[in-house]
Write a structure and sequence with these properties.
Elements (H helix, E strand, L loop, with lengths): L1 H9 L10 H8 L6 H28 L1 H4 L17 H22 L1 H19 L7 H16 L10 H26 L3 H4 L8 H24 L1 H7 L8 H17 L6 H7 L1 H18 L1
Length: 290
């Protein structure tokens, strides 16, 4: 039983909230009333949950020795010895195959997108993660593939504004994570993640501010664009902007003063105000366009 739970832990189900990006197109594409499209979106989301779980398993196997020296990661299954590296790699391959099979059931575009995500993740693990800035862009690209899986992958035309806002949001969260890691690990940061040696706190603060400002500006422009009002049948989406500002500001507070910002999923679960901002934004969006 413990071994089975360790394999489930390898998949990091607490991180699957990130795959909600797949469902964004369902909302903004006004497709939630179409049962077949909803089923396809849910299946694509599950496929990404499995694909991301496979990536986590592979990374845990590769990074086990380094994880044993990390204050938080040393409790992961491979690092603590609950699962061998070989078993973790085999499990990752099996779960990746299941993800591709499920995506193929949705359709070949969804399967191609999941395959691209797995290839990008492998490239990241094998080298891109050591290249400053590019490694954060690669993570953001992974989230863009989630958005595309929930749009192109199920037959919904993706919005250029949706992709721009999503890319800036994930760049913001990526640079914030690096900033949090430097603050958390101090002089030992480069031992646990080599690329941190190439970053400075000053650069990361500027990168976080730039991406946060760009994200809010792009979203504000989107809510007030004439094409947005025509698509959604309302010119009032600007009412959702205060929630975006609240969530962004709260995340910055967590990053700079509360020792947070290292993991968006955990921040969402730990901070009631941040969770309220996300819930308020979603509820307002659904009320206005639903």
């Amino acid at each position: 039983m413990r071994r089975a739970l360790a394999f489930v832990e390898l998949l990091r189900p607490q991180q699957w909230v990130k795959n909600a990006f797949v469902l964004v197109g369902l909302v903004f594409g006004h497709a939630w009333r179409e049962p077949a499209t909803v089923n396809a979106a849910l299946a694509a989301t599950l496929a990404f949950c499995l694909a991301s779980g496979a990536v986590y398993s592979f990374n845990d196997a590769r990074d086990a020795e380094r994880d044993r020296e990390h204050p938080d990661k040393r409790g992961r299954p491979v690092a603590r010895g609950a699962i061998s590296r070989g078993a973790a790699i085999c499990f990752a391959a099996l779960v990746a195959a299941l993800a591709l099979a499920l995506a193929a059931w949705v359709g070949w575009p969804a399967m191609a997108i999941v395959a691209a995500y797995l290839a990008l993740s492998a490239a990241y693990s094998l080298g891109l993660k050591r290249v400053p800035v590019l490694e954060v862009a690669a993570i953001a690209a992974g989230f863009m593939l989630r958005l595309l899986a929930g749009t192109l992958g199920i037959g919904i035309e993706p919005s250029r504004w949706l992709l721009a806002c999503g890319f800036l949001l994930t760049l913001f969260l990526g640079f914030a994570k690096r900033r949090a890691e430097i603050a958390r690990l101090a002089e030992h940061a480069a031992r646990h993640r080599a690329v941190l040696e190439d970053y400075s706190v000053g650069f990361l603060d500027k990168a976080v501010a730039l991406c946060a400002g760009g994200m809010v500006a792009a979203y504000a422009w989107y809510t007030m664009a004439a094409e947005t009002a025509q698509l959604h049948g309302t010119g009032s989406l600007a009412l959702t902007l205060p929630w975006v500002l609240l969530g962004t500001g709260r995340y910055l507070v967590r990053l700079r003063r509360r020792g947070g910002g290292g993991d968006p999923a955990e921040e969402l679960l730990r901070d009631p105000l941040l969770a309220a901002a996300v819930a308020g934004w979603l509820a307002t969006v659904l009320w206005l366009i639903g």
